[in-house]
Amino acid sequence: MSIETIEQDFRKTVCEGLRLSAEGMERYRVFTPFLFEDGDHLAIVLKRDQGRWVLSDEGHTFMHLTYDLDEKDLQRGTRQKIITTALSAFSVDDRHGELIIGIQDERYGDALFNFVQALLKITDITFLSRERVRSTFMEDFRAFIEERVPADRRSFDWHDAKHDPEGKYIVDCRVNGMTRPLLVYALPGDDKVRDATIGLLQFERWGLSSRAVGIFEDQEEVNRKVLARFSDICEKQFSSLAANKDRISRYLDEALHGQS
Questions:
Q1: Which of 7, 148, 188, 256 is the 20 to 30 A CA-CA neighbour of 250?
Q2: φ, ψ for residue 11 (rounded to 5)?
Q3: 130-256 sits in which CATH class?
Q4: Using one digit for the tens of pLDDT, what is the confidence trace for 19-58?
Q5: pTM of the model as a whole
Q6: Which fold would CATH assign to domain 3-126?
Q7: How many Cβ atoms are within 10 Å of 239's Cβ, its own excluded?
């Protein structure tokens, strides 16, 4: 099939606002009107690969997403599920970060249609609903702690078995092994901040010796009165996880080694 015929098939199946541009031997850039959230175009190349024609993003899609997200965040939790589902639904392969789809039976237009749909579905992770973003925040928090605190020094979803056998006052993670254990709260919104405040006040009444740190999804979104009450009882706060990973890492490291 000639490249002119392929281009016509692309236009007929996908959209008229599409063109091919040669970039060397058996390699063509596919220009489409489809965009990322920030206005950049999807990167798509038609090329020969191991004796067959394929469409490839040459690693651009994941690279683009890591402008705003940590690469590890794409490989776990809600985001990873969205990516896996999109690849499976449209028969796209992930080859070490490069997304490719082979051309079957010279059905170039159908392959491009599926490829574009897969890339757009993957970019949907930047448009997650607030509920899904919140679930992702909790997943990100747990993964972050797991990477930085040894397993024998941490307990997720901890409660004081002696004073609170029913587990009414849950701490997202208790870091142990020091004179005063560190109680780490993940705070996606007002309700969780209120619960953390109540829990810390109860621990104070019980006379438990500990320190507390709150890690917010976005502190600016928390009600001012709710935040003020929490600030009265919590020793250390970080306004967001995403923007403070280095600072939180240093804080945890100092706590683990008894420097704070």
A1: 188
A2: -65, -40
A3: alpha beta
A4: 999 998 889 999 998 888 777 889 999 999 888 999 999 9
A5: 0.58
A6: Yope Regulator; Chain: A, (3.30.1460)
A7: 16
